Amino acid sequence: MDQISSFVVPSEWGTQKIFKNLFVVSLGFLFIFTAFQALSNLQSSINCDAGLGVASLATIYGTFILSCMFIPAVIIRYMGLKWTLVISMCCYALYTVANYSPSWATLIPASALVGLAAGPLWTSMSTYVTMLGIRYAMIKDERTEDIIARFFGFFFLFFQTSQVIGNLISSLVFGSEENTNINDTHVNDFTCGAQDCSTETTEENVTTYCNPPEKNLTNILLTVYLVCGITGICIVVIFLQKLERNEDKSEEETCGLFLATLKLMQNIYIVLIIPFSVYAGLQKAFISAEFTKSYVTCTVGVGWVGYVMICYGITSALFSPFWGSLAKVTGRFVIFTTGTIIFGILIVVLLTWAPKVDQLWVMFVSTALWGVAGAAWETQLNALYGSLFHNNQQAAFSNYRLWESVGFTLAFSYSNFLCVWTKLTILMAVLGIGFIGYVILETNERRLRKEPSQTDKHEQSTKL
């Protein structure tokens, strides 16, 4: 298999060095996203005044779209994969700093900076992990697709563990506040769950919940998160090794990655999995912003957000390597189908369930199952893009993150204007459309695999 990339794993690297660098990049992301993911989960609660928190998230993923299109090619071309990761991580740490004094003048610019950094961060990470997988598959003479899926499963074990650690930290800090006492919540003053609406209404009790925690507790939390971010940056700077540049990849080709990203959008496979990619962003935005505010904070207080989201982090972390390994046995279709069914059931439950203080267990179960399905999505979508477009990885991963960020941006943009039940309906619609497109893609892929004589025509068959 002819793998073409701007970077290659040095030929002297053995399996031990490959795993060492996979561990380092995974550990770096664990520390950076321990701060960022937990802080994102809390934005709709700690910065709820005038919708600032949700607006900051919308800004992040709005600029993420532009970042995926324009920035990764330039930054990676001149900085390389390692230093692209370092610079991008520094921008995430600055976002934590901006939350010390949140306002439209501080948080929004910092959010834009994170969005611009996110494209290079995820594109360089995905390329780095994919190249490690390709090299390992060559050494072990195993299927590249299986190894890439396994490596992303390992990476997302660490990445999703950041949810556990970050949310545990927030729970311990905010746990000293009286809003962790279920009896002190104001459930009678607010309509929670699917009927929570941000739009003005004539019904007296239908209103958006906003009761931020004490500022001194928030500052303590931010300090811990800032230390985590700086630690992640130091780990990558000190221990991550550079990949070699591919001399066979011309400068013109490398500088033309932006055009390659646009050109790849004409590929029928990209078109078919766009809804799946958009849904990946929509579902993450919902669980981190809507669920935490309208189901958890609204019902039992912000002090419980961390504890509930820990379940999400634990199942995501545990099932990421599980799905990655299972793909070798069952194939990705079974995993995507399982994830789709779980998501569908959860959406129906959240549409019909009215959260109450004595049903806290439902929140824990819901987030746990959401993590199971989310892990399937995360590992298999990365592996899907990596295996389908192995000859054009940076453009492929830029496309993936671009469309995922479209989902994030849409979700956070309409967050302050739509009722929760409407947002859940949108989730269900995009999920259904995405699964249909994915089934068509897999059907075509299996047909091509059964017809070896068509291999040379594979590229032509995937063009519009």
UniProtKB/TrEMBL annotation:
Transmembrane stretches in the record are 21-40, 52-76, 83-101, 107-130, 151-174, 220-240, 268-287, 307-326, 333-354, 424-441
Per its UniProt record, what Gene3D superfamilies does this chain match? MFS general substrate transporter like domains (1.20.1250.20)
**Compartments where found:** Membrane
Instruction: Check the record and name the InterPro entries matching this protein.
Output: Ion_channel_UNC-93, MFS_trans_sf, UNC-93_regulatory
Entry-linked Pfam families = UNC-93 (PF05978)
Which keywords label this protein?
A: Membrane, Transmembrane, Transmembrane helix
Query: Per the record, GO CC terms?
Result: membrane
How does it sit in the bilayer? Multi-pass membrane protein
Q: Provide the family line.
A: Belongs to the unc-93 family.
By what name is this protein known?
Protein unc-93-like A
Q: Which organism is it from?
A: Holothuria leucospilota (Black long sea cucumber)
